[in-house]
Specification:
single chain; alpha/beta; three-stranded mixed β-sheet; Amidase signature (AS) enzymes
């Protein structure tokens, strides 16, 4: 059977299954064969479901919009019943085993997705690359010396290689949008509380979110329709959408007020390729009828970085303790950066942590005022053009790790701190053919507007046929 995912998105292939033009079992067998082949080159999937586990996954899939579509779930922030969620860590490789699906995973199954495995991630999602000591590095299908980004790099790599049309991804500081940018995919981080993280509680002081990466805009929109909504007792809830997110991709966004930024206050100038990409995208937006001008919110980058580091370290310490259930990590159970971050987190006072959360809230209010004047804030997704393997080291000191981290998250992490939605759209390409994602931020609860704009951009500058050299 031809590789349908090279030419069809998930909704299109599900349509073939629903109209009996394609057998679900035929698709499943062919997809698993392709996934195993591409995984031998990318190392993107940590676990393939087999035997009874796969049979149960097939049986649990409903007849929703993604009926019969194979899918992988990232090894972070989402539990699949009967298997451990490893968090990319040797320490959690065998336990605890999930007794039930997390809320979002249960909704994925009801939407018709057939979960066939778990995708690779950096340990505890701490790095914006996917090079865990446990299981090894995932490489980019664009070039084997490059990382696909992280921490959702495993999911992004298999989708970019057209082995799947979309895959689960999570985002605590940019981990949906960073690999989407580096792999030439669409990736949207929803608003805080749009998708329940149950049974998890507050994740990174509300910074954590989940959805996926995809080839098409409409697949991500339909996935959000399928898994959006709160669960009883959730600490955050997004404002209700006016309709379906998929429907939003079918209507024009209207004339939007777009601010674009080409520099970062207090940081070195951006690479000329990134500046040019922003300028070209701003021009395109103007041609599409939007009002575009150069502007940026006046935010304290140093305070944001310090607050995010505090929240991340404290959560690393606490999450290890909670999931360990009394077990104590040995000297080789955690990567050096994870261990050092947890040690730092264990020493953070309540006063320091509360002040960090208050910084999140203060920045959120400042950004909220900015979005009274503008609908969209445009920038590059990253402050770099590509990510060689080994750039962000987790086997060294925290200082060296933070040096590698700095150019990866300056545009993305503010959206996690403030809870606003943001997306990376593959609209630019470097001279060597590598993708450059453009980052679009909207006000809290504005996913419908973002999907509408993304669909307009997808039609104006289609990217589906821009494929990496390594495919199935």
């Amino acid at each position: 059977m031809e590789n349908l995912f090279a030419t069809h998105d998930a909704l299109a292939v599900a349509g073939l299954i629903k109209t009996r033009k394609l057998g679900a079992q035929e698709l499943l067998e062919a997809t698993l064969a392709r996934l195993r082949s591409v995984n031998s080159k990318l190392n993107a999937i940590t676990d393939f479901y087999e035997g009874d586990l796969l049979e149960r996954s097939v049986a649990a899939a409903g007849e929703g919009p993604f009926q019969g579509i194979p899918f992988v779930v990232k090894q972070l922030m989402a539990d699949c019943a009967g298997t451990p969620t490893t968090l990319g860590s040797k320490f959690f490789a065998k336990e605890p085993v999930a007794v039930a699906d997390s809320t979002a995973v249960a909704r994925m199954r009801r939407a018709g997705l057939v979960i066939v495995g778990r995708s690779n991630t950096s340990e505890l999602g701490l790095a914006p690359t996917t090079e865990p000591a446990f299981g090894g590095a995932t490489v980019s299908p664009w070039r084997p010396d490059l990382s696909p980004g992280g921490s959702s790099g495993g999911s992004a790599a298999v989708v970019a290689a057209r082995a799947l049309p979309m895959a689960h991804a999570t985002d605590g500081g940019g981990s949906i949008r960073i690999p989407a940018s580096l792999c030439g995919l669409f990736g949207l981080k929803p608003s805080r509380g749009r998708v329940s993280l149950a049974p998890l509680g507050e994740t990174l002081a509300g910074a954590g979110a989940q959805l996926g990466v995809s080839i098409s805009v409409r697949d991500s929109a339909a996935l959000l329709d399928a898994i959006a909504g709160d669960a009883p007792g959730d600490p955050y809830v997004s404002p209700p959408a006016s309709g379906s997110f998929l429907a939003a991709t079918g209507r024009p966004p209207g004339r939007l007020r777009v601010a674009f930024m080409q520099a970062l206050k207090g940081r070195p100038p951006l690479h000329p390729a990134l500046v040019a990409a922003v300028e070209q995208t701003a021009t395109l937006l103007g041609e599409l009828g939007h009002h575009v001008e150069q502007a940026e919110p006046d935010l304290d980058g140093a305070a944001m970085g310090a607050a995010f580091g505090t929240v991340m370290a404290a959560n690393t310490f606490t999450n290890i303790q909670l999931r360990a259930n009394g077990r104590i990590p040995g000297p080789d159970d955690l990567e050096p950066v994870t261990r050092l971050s947890a040690e730092r987190g264990g020493k953070i006072s309540a006063d320091t942590y509360i002040r960090a959360v208050q910084t999140f809230h203060r920045i959120g209010r400042q950004l909220g005022v900015f979005f009274e004047r503008y609908d969209i804030l445009l920038s590059p997704t990253l402050a770099c053009t590509h990510l060689p393997l080994g750039t962000v080291r987790t086997d060294d000191t925290l200082d060296h790790y933070e040096e590698g981290l700095a150019p990866m998250v300056p545009f993305t992490s503010v959206c996690n701190m403030t809870g606003v939605p943001a997306m990376s759209v593959p609209l630019a390409w470097a001279e060597d053919g590598l993708p450059i994602g453009m980052h679009f931020v909207g006000r809290f609860g504005a996913e419908e507007m973002l999907f509408s704009l993304a669909a307009q951009l997808e039609e104006a500058r289609p990217w589906r046929d821009k494929r990496p050299p390594l495919q199935v």
